[in-house]
Design goal:
CATH class: Alpha Beta
CATH architecture: 3-Layer(aba) Sandwich
CATH superfamily: Alpha/Beta hydrolase fold, catalytic domain
Number of strands: 10
Bound molecules: alpha-D-glucopyranuronic acid
Oligomer: single chain
Distance between the termini: 31 Å
Order of helices and strands: HHEEEEHEHHHEHEHHEHEEH
Length: about 350
């Protein structure tokens, strides 16, 4: 046995190619059914359910074709909706290369309101022919335990049993509805991208919404792409004690008890198959546990192999900074430095999407 299989065997992670009733998952038709079971499991035990769609309107507040020497069209908009429980709205921004068609597009859940000028290097993205639809997660609903603000008041937790990650996913799914209405967007190349807690949100959104062709999860770590069993980084206890509101209360029972989880994070990556997922780790980001992130890509690969596709294609050794694995349907890179979403990462994700 080589390095990867030995490490996976040590962790004793559950097999996702088995139905809840114990029968094996053997073909493509089985996979679609099993995928739904996995999503239900992760919803019930970790993230909660993403609330259903409601009709919405878009109010355009700003449109400008004057940015970056007119190579960029920028807009600022408000998405508004009503549910039986109340009114919700949030702002989003769009950045598209001026006058282009068939534009591959990122739906970007941003960490900060002013992200285009740091975590989102707009000019470089536009120069590669991509567009971005961006919303700031904490405006959608605050990044804390208050479930009365933003869209949370219209989508009550008591009714929908969701944590904040699922609420942010709901918003990203509405941005996907909006992207479907833009005739210059290449609908076969819509990716979601997010960093860290929003990398977790990215994986969960794309798992649920099959209109996304790609998930680009940056440094998502614990409760994102990193295997929880035997982690040397953040644990379920640590994340749940600080951020219980990202999840549902059912997740708490796995604190210091990861081995009892009927899943591990490779279930989440696998539930995106056959669509493509690209993850990234940073060598100084020990909290996210880079090797547990890499191993999880390997543990998810059997979902693709069942469908006759390649999962991750990689060397059988621990990753080192500079490694990039883009041959299969699961992409992964490990870079130098620490916890951030850099231009280097964006370029890697665009390389991966360009190839596919
Ligand atoms: C904290 C948290 C991580 C999370 C990170 C982030 O460090 O423990 O799980 O990924 O914040 O979102 O930057």
């Amino acid at each position: 046995m080589g390095y990867i299989q030995e490490e996976l065997a040590k962790r004793n992670i559950p097999d996702f190619l088995v139905f809840n009733d114990g029968t094996p998952v053997t073909d493509k038709a089985d996979w679609e059914k099993r995928r739904k079971e996995i999503i239900d499991l992760l919803a019930n035990e970790m993230y909660g359910h993403i609330p259903p769609a409601f009709p919405f309107t878009i109010e355009e507040k700003v449109f400008s074709d004057k940015h970056l020497g007119r190579k960029l069209d920028y807009s600022q908009n408000i998405l508004k909706f009503d549910t039986p429980y109340g009114h919700g709205e949030f702002t989003f921004h769009t950045f598209f290369p001026h006058g282009k068609t068939n534009v591959p597009t990122f739906i970007f859940m941003a960490f900060k309101p002013n992200e285009p000028w740091n975590y989102c290097p707009v000019e470089s993205i536009i120069d590669r022919g991509y567009g971005v639809i961006m919303a700031y997660h904490a405006e959608i609903s605050s990044d804390d335990g208050d479930f009365t603000n933003g869209i949370a008041s219209a989508l009550p937790r008591e009714v929908y049993n969701c944590g904040k990650i699922s609420l942010w996913s709901w918003a990203a799914t509405r941005l996907m509805d909006y992207a479907q209405t833009l005739d210059f967007v290449d609908k076969t190349k819509i990716a979601m991208i997010g960093h860290s807690r929003l990398g977790k949100t990215t994986l969960w959104t794309v798992a649920n919404d099959t209109r996304f062709s790609f998930a680009c999860a940056n440094c998502s770590g614990c409760s994102g792409d990193a295997l929880a069993r035997d982690t040397v980084g953040e644990t379920v206890e640590k994340i749940y004690n600080r951020f219980p509101y990202w999840f549902v209360p059912a997740y708490e029972k796995y604190k210091n008890n990861e081995s009892s989880m009927p899943f591990d994070q490779h279930f989440l990556l696998a539930s995106i198959a056959p669509r493509k997922v690209c993850t990234a780790a940073a060598v100084l980001d020990a909290w996210a546990d880079p090797q547990a992130q890499f191993l999880s890509c390997n543990a998810a690969s059997p979902a693709y192999e069942l469908l006759g596709l390649k999962g991750i294609v990689c060397d059988d050794r621990p990753t080192v900074p500079g490694d990039t694995y883009h041959e299969g349907n699961i992409g992964h890179h490990l870079r130098h430095h620490g916890h951030t979403l850099s231009l280097y990462d964006w370029n890697k994700y665009m390389d991966f999407i360009d190839k596919n």
